[in-house]
Design goal:
alpha/beta; six-stranded mixed β-sheet; 16% strand
């Protein structure tokens, strides 16, 4: 089962969070005290490793005392079902299972309820279960009086019929009805004994069956129990202590035995637990005379921990070694980058933090870092920005095979390339709410996200007040040279204050455009008219432009911008095919000649570059469209007027410049 969305109600500052849609990695963004922790806490208690019930006295929203009720649902979840789980449910019912998602609730009383569609799983026993229970009725002996056999057969059939009809109460009184008709008939002693044995066995078993059927789980109950067993475990972490691996074991034991362990004691015990070492035993071994045997045992414990780390991360992210001298216990660690074996406390603060975080996550998931819902409250809070960015990359690894949700108010802990993952938490007069639409969020809730956009944008890109973002360098070159040629010809070109930013493809164009939006700049993003361009454009529109409706931002598709609405269109398609192929042949003359190619015959298709690339690949040649673009741009730069271009390109150039200019706000 995979968590798809959840909803929290009547929990601390949350009256109704609304539905929160999640991906495999989701970030909840908001200022401090906005309710981020409450949201995660309420979700965690839905199905934690260790029981952690909701508490009405401590967790019911203040000011709503009169509404307190143990039946109040706190967390409603919606899970998608795996195919194996659908098949498992189908085996429990008498009809096909067509649902692919299920909602499950937990209330303040701790009750889990699976919200099956009406009549999908009836509250009655499965016929197979009834048959199996009824088969325990004793068989009628062959060697009995014929009239007795017939009466016994009728009684047995009536018992099975009542059971099949679900009339279990009637079964409890059925023996009183059947007893008179089952008196032994035969005077023949052997037959009479057989008949008496059946009567005794039938009477006793009939009572047992009635009780067994009454207590047997119904189809609905079995389905409920099956689904509950499939719910993933929820893991919550909010303290990210740096582990210390050095300590005097006897002193640690004294503090633990007195119930006053320090944080350092607790982290050391966590390391030892993962390595399958026991504190009490290690304290005793400290006084043993065989130091070599002790070190051998510690090496085996380190190997055990290293194996666990490697199994979780698909590589040995860290290598641990343990040493001991009497009661002094030491932990040495080396990483992937720095292979020196150094005491944990002497490692950099960032190294200590990541090592501690990884081991704590392994510990909290009880070694099952798969199939979980991992909830992280403000991870990386005390890391410097570069380390926060590293942690953001690591979260992708943690989310493999899991659903990971984390909260943050740190700009560097937000991945702007994945806007679908971002949810904004706001504190309103109706309590804490979660939204995907920034236009309806409070200004304070947007600050973190806008800071992420603005900070990262200033670090990476030179921008102006008005900006055009294009997919690549070739787009930048051709548009710039065509605009300059139009200006030399006395025609309208692009505005002088427009800054064109080339990107590394359609998806990066969306990424860069979001930076500029966050910096309150005017921006238009220009995309090729093809699959990747259309997808990236839709992503920018749906996930960002709708959230910043007050900003002057927009998108353009290259084809419609120049009047080509019904085909794929890239920047090279501004030129006639023959014109473009002439420059291809001129630049690649030697390569084509060595391959005995005198004429380029393009395969069918729409974008000329894709067709040229296919032709070159077919003949084992490499094609670089950038080189051809440079040649064309050099030719355009040497032209005196727009009339030197092919007529088709003249029209396209004017239409494109006009479309870009009209998409920009007025200066």
């Amino acid at each position: 089962m995979k968590l798809e969305r959840f909803r929290i109600q009547m929990y601390k500052s949350i009256l109704d969070s609304g539905w929160v849609k999640v991906t495999h990695l989701t970030v909840l963004v908001g200022k401090n005290e906005a309710g981020k922790t409450s949201l995660l806490r309420a979700l965690h208690k839905f199905n934690p490793f260790k029981p952690d019930p909701y508490s009405i006295p401590r967790e019911w929203p203040r000011g709503h005392r009169g509404e307190r009720a143990g039946t109040q649902v706190v967390c409603t979840t919606e899970f998608s079902l795996e195919q194996a789980e659908i098949e498992g449910l189908a085996a429990l019912t008498t009809q096909p299972v067509t649902v692919t998602t299920l909602q499950i609730t937990r209330d303040y009383g701790g009750r889990l309820e699976v919200l099956f569609p009406t009549d999908m799983f009836p509250d009655k026993l499965h016929p197979n279960d009834i048959d199996a229970i009824c088969e325990t009725l004793p068989a009628i002996p062959e060697d009995v009086d014929p009239t007795f056999k017939e009466a016994a057969k009728e009684c047995r059939q009536e018992a099975v019929r009542l059971a099949s009809e679900g009339r279990f109460t009637d079964l409890t009184t059925l023996w009183n009805k059947h007893s008179p008709s089952l008196q032994p008939r035969s005077s023949n002693n052997p037959h009479r004994q057989n008949e008496q044995n059946f009567v005794n066995g039938y009477g006793n078993q009939l009572k047992q069956i009635a009780s067994q059927l009454a207590s047997a789980p119904s189809i609905h109950k079995k389905a409920h129990e099956y689904v509950v067993k499939c719910i993933p475990t929820f893991v919550y972490m909010d303290e990210y202590r740096s582990f210390r691996g050095t300590a005097l074991l006897e002193q640690v034991k004294q503090r633990v035995d007195s119930g006053k362990p320090t944080e350092d004691d607790q982290t050391l015990i966590t390391i030892m637990t993962l390595a399958e070492l026991k504190l009490d035993e290690e304290v005793k071994k400290a006084t043993a005379s065989d130091r070599e045997e002790r070190q051998y045992d510690l090496s085996d414990a380190a190997a055990t921990l290293n194996r666990k780390i490697e199994a979780h991360w698909r590589q040995l992210r860290y290598e641990v070694d343990f040493r001991a001298d009497g009661q002094q216990f030491l932990t040495f660690v080396k990483g992937l980058k720095d292979r020196a074996l150094i005491r944990l406390e002497e490692r950099s603060r960032g190294f200590q933090w990541f090592f501690s975080f990884d081991l704590m996550l392994m510990h909290e998931t009880q070694g099952q870092l798969k199939g979980c819902v991992i909830l992280l409250d403000e991870p990386g809070l005390h890391l410097h920005p570069e380390a926060q960015s590293d942690l953001l990359e690591r979260l992708e690894t943690y989310a493999e095979g899991n659903t990971l949700i984390y909260t943050t108010h740190l700009p560097f802990m937000i991945d702007l390339q994945e806007p679908d993952r971002i949810k904004v938490i706001s504190e309103t007069d109706k309590g804490t709410v979660v939204s995907e639409d920034l236009t309806t969020s409070q200004p304070e809730a947007k600050l973190v996200l806008q800071a992420a956009l603005g900070i990262k944008g200033r670090l990476s890109y030179l921008v102006a007040e008005r900006n055009l973002v294009v997919e690549g360098v070739d787009d930048h070159r051709i548009i710039t040279h065509l605009s300059n040629l139009l200006l030399r010809s006395g025609e309208a070109g692009l505005p002088e204050d427009l800054f064109i930013t080339p990107c590394g493809g359609a998806s990066e164009a969306t990424y860069i455009a979001t930076f500029m939006i966050g910096q309150a700049l005017d921006v238009v993003a220009l995309y090729d008219t093809d699959g990747s361009g259309n997808t990236a454009k839709d992503k920018l529109v749906k996930n960002w432009l709708t959230r910043y409706q007050s900003r002057q931002a927009g998108t353009l598709s290259l084809g419609p911008a120049v009047g080509e609405n019904d085909r794929e269109f890239a920047i090279e398609d501004l030129f006639p095919e023959t014109y473009y192929l002439k420059h291809v042949q001129n630049f690649y003359a030697k390569q084509l000649a060595s391959a005995n190619i005198t004429t380029i015959s393009l395969p069918p298709g729409e974008q000329v570059v894709k067709r040229v690339e296919a032709f070159f690949e077919q003949h084992g040649l490499k094609f670089n469209k950038g080189s051809v673009c440079k040649m064309i741009c050099t030719e355009i730069r040497n032209m005196k007027t727009i009339a030197d271009l092919p007529t088709e390109t003249q029209t396209y150039a004017k239409l494109l410049v006009k479309a870009i200019t009209e998409s920009l706000p007025k200066a």
